[in-house]
């Protein structure tokens, strides 16, 4: 399917995936350089954070800070708490982010911004389109068992990626070019290695496989115009010390995928994702 969009307005969907999400900063940098107008952002987890920084006109500053992180600095941002509620409070990270961009009300942003979290009791998505952007970020990044969940409006909220790691269903501007950044691409690892893993690692790989299939089904159903796919083993959840490499990766992958647009007078070309998990 092909559509004409002369103004190159974009609805950008940013997925969840820990440090792999830093690639999304590079994607945004490429889009801006090429004259795309990001008119809407829908994000969950790390995607909600990166999208918020861009909405507040501070994504470059976020990237600059991320590029300075070492393993030790990442560790010092982890504020351990009572493991009954989650290994980490998450407040130390939020406090640091406040030095990068201020809290604002979502409805006051210059374009449409949506963050997605999960109500674990009701097993349903919770969508933030108004109110404090930091409340939305904190709820959306609350990885179960890692960050303490957030009690909000009588709901217990955790990471939006639990139910919807690539929230394409919340795009509202259907006439825009829809670009999705899928952080759950197939890993580059050799086949046959999974059988050699210990039980905990095997359980983790099984969870990752479920996420990948969910993302594939979402892409097949909603069919964004372009999908920028990040291999699942590009980075571990805490590999923020590799931000320079990851931002470059996102920039280069965006370039590779969006070069397709320059080869057609009808913009953009809608691609259909593979059904292979």
TrEMBL record:
The keyword Lipid metabolism applies. Residues 12-172 form the PNPLA domain. Keywords: Hydrolase, Lipid degradation, Lipid metabolism. The active site is at 45 (nucleophile), 159 (proton acceptor). It comes from the Bacteria. A motif (DGA/G) lies at residues 159-161. GO terms for biological process: lipid catabolic process. The keyword Lipid metabolism applies. It holds the Pfam family Patatin. A motif (GXSXG) lies at residues 43-47. One of its GO terms (molecular function) is hydrolase activity. This is NTE family protein. It comes from Sphingobacterium paludis.
């Amino acid at each position: 399917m092909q559509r004409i969009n002369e103004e190159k307005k974009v609805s950008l969907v940013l997925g969840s995936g820990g440090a792999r999400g830093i690639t999304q900063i590079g994607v945004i940098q490429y889009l801006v350089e090429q004259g795309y107008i990001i008119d809407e952002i829908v994000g969950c987890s790390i995607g909600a954070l990166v999208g918020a920084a861009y909405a507040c006109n501070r994504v470059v500053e976020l990237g600059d800070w991320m590029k300075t992180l070492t393993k030790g600095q990442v560790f010092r941002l982890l504020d351990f708490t009572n493991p009954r509620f989650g290994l980490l409070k998450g407040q130390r990270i939020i406090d640091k982010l406040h030095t990068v961009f201020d809290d604002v009300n979502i409805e006051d942003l210059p374009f449409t911004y949506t963050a997605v979290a999960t109500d674990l009791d009701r097993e349903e998505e919770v969508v933030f389109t108004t109110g404090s952007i930091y409340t939305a970020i904190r709820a959306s990044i609350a990885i179960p068992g890692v960050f303490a969940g957030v009690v909000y409006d009588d709901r217990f909220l955790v990471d939006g990626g639990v139910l919807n790691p690539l929230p394409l269903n919340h795009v509202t501007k259907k006439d825009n070019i829809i670009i999705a950044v899928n952080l759950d691409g197939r890993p580059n690892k050799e086949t046959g290695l999974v059988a050699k893993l210990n039980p905990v690692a095997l359980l983790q790989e099984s969870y990752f496989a479920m996420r990948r299939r969910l993302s594939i089904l979402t892409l097949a159903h909603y069919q964004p115009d372009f999908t920028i796919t990040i291999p699942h083993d590009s980075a571990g959840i805490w590999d923020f010390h590799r931000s320079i490499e990851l931002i470059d990766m996102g920039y280069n992958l965006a370039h590779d995928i969006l070069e397709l647009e320059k080869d057609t007078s009808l913009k953009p070309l809608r691609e259909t994702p593979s059904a292979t998990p």
